[in-house]
Amino acid sequence: MRSLRRIWNRRVFGLPSMLMLGIGIAFRTFRNRLATALWRGNLGRLGSGSCIQSGVTIRYPGSVFIGNRTSIARDTEITSEKLDGLCRIGSDVIVGVGTRLDFSGELEVGDNVVISEKVTIFTHSHGLNPKSISRKISLTIESGVWIGSNAIIVEGVSRIGRGSVVASGAVVTREVPAGTVVAGVPAKTIKKKV
Length: 194
What we know:
The chain is of the alpha/beta class. It is built from two helices and 22 strands.
């Protein structure tokens, strides 16, 4: 009954809104389950209990391996400029809306990682010539990391250490040690977690 009160104000005019909201939720749930089922047959691996919402784009899906109970939100792009790129995402990972994960180099995401909305991660570099052949650079995001919304991890970063936090809007240009909080442009250590 409490959940009903959240979506319906008990007024007669609120009933159509409640019904439309319920239909919308049911339709979105169906689309997400359908998208997950379609990706399950195309990815290198999609673990049990994982969900890929509709509107996700994955380039070279055979090179993407996703663990158990992982959620990839809508409008996310998992892309690569290289055929031999490799992306491994662990279990219990949350990838937020509108995120871009590049695995042209190699991208490995550990377990229990939260990647918030609109994060951009690069694993290749063109140097100073945008028309040059890209150079692959692998990146490991260790377990327990939280990357805040709108953060950017540029090419050349090889590791985000276990249990670290990247603040919202930070631009990470070098390795992040384990158990630290980084923020700013470029990102600098502002705190050591206890």
